[in-house]
Design a protein that fits this description.
Two copies of one chain form a homodimer. In chain A, 72% of the residues lie in helices and 0% in strands. The first copy, chain A, is an all-alpha fold and 178 residues long.
Chain lengths: 178, 178
């Protein structure tokens, strides 16, 4: 589903990949849409857990934490031959217009992800790492969105260049003190 | 296909929407993939034609032309209840990992779109509208990519806010003279 998208992945493929019988699937999920929605929750849980490992590191400044999060995702994509992209970005693109239930869930997911960056940007602002003039919440959404756009280009370029360029524009332009 | 994606749209739906019989389809297209690739060419042709109407306007500065292009696309999405997104961004996300033929064609499409912005940014730089320090080509790709990311969030938010915020960060931060 991460690679092929939601609509292009059949329940049978999911069952085969997980090695569980059909009956078990319907014990846990009402239908395929319900499964998709729970995948989003699962990923947001993973994202929170993953980022918490970094945000709790006392040796890093708030801005360094943001960079570390993005660097580690970039390493993941490098190890996967620049495939997959972000489940939340992918599903927003694919399902945002097709299912109100997905749209609502994905909006929450984007809010949660941006919320983590917004908190770090507020801390960075309090420490004078980024300009006073920046709105931490708006900048957090821009980091998430422009990252999703960079991941789209990464899939086509099959290189780390789009992600590196994203980091450069975010850190050297948008968040730069001047 | 623009709304539902490539894999989720059947040839029969395309035939029904176009009002042509199956035989005609196979007169023009080898198969569904060939059709998809020609859709990308068609859109890039449209994008070039559309932007040429703006880039040829003598009353606008190069930077104003970029803003006009993005503003007009934003008006289009507003009229479509913030659905659809960019065909090239959508297909890159959906097909970049699934088909080498799509990947190659989409890479060309992204290059063509970024090329138009790069040319305008070079002109803007020559006129002192943007800083000397910016690489026009890299900034052009960032405009395209971060726009694709903003379109993803637009689909979920169903508002113009992601696109407006994109313009703000591009023009007030990335391209700002200081």
């Amino acid at each position: 589903m991460h690679l092929k998208g939601f609509n292009h992945t059949g329940i049978q493929e999911i069952l085969d990949a997980a090695g569980v019988p059909k009956g078990s699937f319907y014990n846990y999920f009402k239908n395929k849409e319900d499964f998709g929605l729970q995948v989003i929750d699962y990923f947001v849980g993973y994202f929170s857990f993953f980022t918490e490992g970094i945000t709790s590191e006392r040796s890093l400044s708030p801005l360094e934490k943001i960079r570390r999060i993005l660097d580690q995702f970039a390493s993941f994509f490098e190890s996967k031959d620049y495939a997959y992209g972000c489940p939340v970005g992918n599903l927003s693109q694919e399902m945002g217009d097709l299912s109100p239930a997905f749209r609502e869930k994905l909006k929450e997911a984007l809010d949660a992800m941006a919320g983590i960056y917004a908190q770090l940007l507020k801390e960075a602002q309090a420490r004078g790492e980024i300009p006073e003039s920046i709105d931490p919440t708006e900048a957090a959404y821009f980091i998430v969105s422009s990252w999703h756009g960079a991941l789209i280009r990464m899939k086509v370029e099959k290189s780390s260049e789009p992600l590196k360029s994203h980091l450069k524009f975010i850190f050297d332009y948008v968040l730069k003190r001047r």
